[in-house]
């Protein structure tokens, strides 16, 4: 698995100029806006998941997967290496972007460090949940098809969320205060809930990805 991770890191290194140009957009926003730390951290984290998942597409070029499967690695190890790379890269980028965001806060004094930490943690957890959906899609479909499926999935999620919000608003107007317990939840309870959801998504995603790889012929 170490060899697979080294290979992916080299792929990222080769395309580093392109990735740095994308990150530079967020950095410009951070410098230009006194309250831009929250956006910059979230932007950097979400860009990082595209970078790491993109290595799956590179593996398929010029029959690359056929060569990889001749090496002393299993399909299960290949899947595990992709999750380790993606989650590890997201954490690394979140730490670096958070440090830059903290420096900006110290200079401007326009934002609370605690708010940035909460926003960064939330963005990291949500990005990991998105990764749990992106990796199986990339493994099952080609790059173009996986993008279409992912966009469709996101659209469905937003549609369901919008419908749920409308139903909740109707419930509040009809029955008074609605679900009062939601207002009593503290920050750490919400954080624990998000982490639990992420871990469940991760467990399911890994199993699905392993099944997808086992069924593939190279």
Fold topology:
Blueprint: H1 2-14, H2 16-32, H3 37-60, H4 64-68, H5 75-108, H6 113-140, H7 143-175, H8 181-184, H9 187-215
Pfam family, one: ABC2_membrane_5
Keywords: Membrane, Transmembrane, Transmembrane helix
Protein name: ABC-2 transporter permease
Q: How does this model look, in words?
A:
- The protein is an all-alpha fold and 218 residues long.
- The chain has one domain (2-140, 179-215).
- It is built from 9 helices and no strands.
- The longest helix is centred in the middle third of the chain and has 34 residues, at 75-108.
- The two termini are 19 Å apart.
- The model has no long low-confidence stretch (mean pLDDT 80).
- Keywords: Membrane, Transmembrane, Transmembrane helix.
- The chain crosses the membrane at residues 12-32, 38-61, 82-105, 117-137, 149-168, 188-206.
- This is ABC-2 transporter permease.
| Overall pLDDT confidence | 80
- What letter string, H or E per element, gives the SSE order? HHHHHHHHH
Extended strand count:
0
- Can you count the helices? 9
Beta percentage is under 5%
Between the first and last Cα atoms, what is the distance in angstroms? 19 Å
Helix/strand/pairing class, anyone? Answer: mainly alpha
Largest β-sheet summary: none
What would you call the shape?
globular
Radius of gyration: 20 Å
Helix content class: over 70%
How many independent structural domains? 1
Unreliably modeled segments: none
């Amino acid at each position: 698995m170490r060899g697979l991770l080294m290979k992916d890191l080299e792929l990222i290194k080769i395309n580093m100029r392109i990735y740095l140009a994308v990150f530079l957009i967020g950095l410009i926003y951070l410098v230009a806006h006194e309250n831009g730390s929250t956006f910059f951290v979230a932007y950097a984290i979400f860009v990082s998941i595209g970078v790491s998942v993109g290595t799956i597409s590179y593996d398929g070029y010029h029959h690359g997967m056929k060569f990889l499967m001749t090496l002393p690695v299993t399909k299960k190890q290949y899947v595990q290496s992709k999750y380790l790379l993606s989650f590890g890269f997201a954490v690394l980028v979140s730490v670096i972007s958070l440090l830059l965001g903290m420096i900006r806060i110290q200079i401007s004094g326009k934002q609370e460090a605690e708010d940035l930490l909460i926003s960064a943690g939330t963005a990291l957890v949500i990005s990991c949940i998105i990764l749990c959906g992106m990796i199986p899609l990339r493994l099952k479909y080609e790059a173009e098809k996986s993008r279409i499926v992912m966009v469709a999935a996101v659209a469905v999620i937003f549609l369901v969320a919008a419908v749920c919000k409308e139903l909740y608003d109707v419930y509040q107007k009809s029955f008074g205060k609605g679900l009062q317990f939601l207002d009593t939840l503290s920050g750490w309870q919400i954080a624990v809930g998000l982490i639990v959801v992420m871990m469940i998504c991760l467990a399911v995603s890994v199993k699905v990805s392993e099944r997808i790889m086992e069924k593939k012929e190279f």
